[in-house]
Amino acid sequence: MIRRIILGTFLLLCVTPSAFPKFKDDEQKYLDDQFKAILDQMQAMGNQVAALNGQLTELKQNQATLQSVIIRQQHQLQDLDEMLSSLRIGNEENFSKLKAALADLRAETDNAVSKLTGQAAAPPSSPAVAAVSTPAAPAPSPAPARQAPQGYVTSTSADGTTVMIDMGSAQGIQQGAKLAVYKASDPNTRVGVIEVTQVVDSGNSRASVVTMNPGVKPEFSDMVRVVTD
After folding, report:
1. What share of the chain is helix, strand, coil (3-state, %, to 5)?
2. Which of 58, 73, 78, 138 could be stapled to 109 by a disulfide with Cβ–Cβ 3.0 to 4.6 Å?
3. Under CATH, what is the fold of the domain 147-226?
4. What pTM did the predictor assign?
5. Contacts of 121 by beta carbon, 8 Å cutoff, 6+ apart
């Protein structure tokens, strides 16, 4: 029995090599070359993937930097808006300086957004340019000895139907009070009328537009005066 097993194993070892085909030298060289070419292509693809990953990491870092700049500038804009809404500005020169600083911050924010999105920044609106380049002249004193209370528009709604003004209970403003609207560039020409719908606090009120001249909308920094007639 043992002899049969040894004989079978010997025969198996002798027959096995003949069961597999043998490649010729030229065929073996062709296969080796093809295999090497595939390895080179895989290596090149790996290098390209690594380069793309590096570019993606750099883009993510730039995006994070731009986003932090935008957030910081938005906070600065919010602080300026809150300061303008809480202060009663009586000096036109100081008011123009604050508007210029606000316009610069908004322009810087627009440039950061354009870099992030790849779109050109929108040009500044004409009222802001006019306000910065040509400060509005102070309103002349009216003929009556007592001048009507005066304030400014601090913000407007998107549709232009409601506004916030820096006048409140401290100036004697009450719900239902009507105020005339004047442009900073022409403080003597009335362009519309607003009506107070809510006295927020001592220095701020919300109002709705009653009438406005055709083609005119209430804007930030417009002057408002209590209607006395």
Report:
1. 50, 20, 30
2. 73
3. Thrombin, subunit H (2.40.10)
4. 0.39
5. 107, 110, 111, 113, 114
- Cα separation, 136 vs 90, whole angstroms: 12
Structure tokens at 37: 């070419």
Residue indicated by tokens 């808006």: 81
3-class DSSP assignment, residue 12: helix
Average pLDDT over the chain, rounded to an integer: 75
Residue 132 and residue 220 in contact, taking contact as beta carbons nearer than 8 Å: no
Residue, of 152 and 89, whose pLDDT is higher? 152
DSSP 152: E
Q: pLDDT higher for 223 or 70?
A: 223
Q: Which amino acid belongs to residue 161? A: T
User: Do 134 and 100 meet the contact criterion of CB atoms below 8 Å apart?
Assistant: no
Q: For residues 19 and 22, give the distance between their C-alpha atoms in angstroms, rounded to a whole number.
A: 9
DSSP letter (8 states) at residue 168: -
> 223 with 167: CB under 8 angstroms?
no
75 SS3 class = helix
Q: What is the DSSP letter of 220?
A: T
What is the helix (H) or strand (E) element at residue 44, kind and residue range? helix 25-86
pLDDT tens for 115-166 read 666 655 555 444 443 444 444 555 555 444 456 788 999 999 988 899 999 9
Cβ pair 70, 109 in contact under 8 A: yes
- b/e for 3-34, b at 16 or more Cβ within 10 A? eeeeeeeeeeeeeeeeeeeeeeeeeeeeeeee
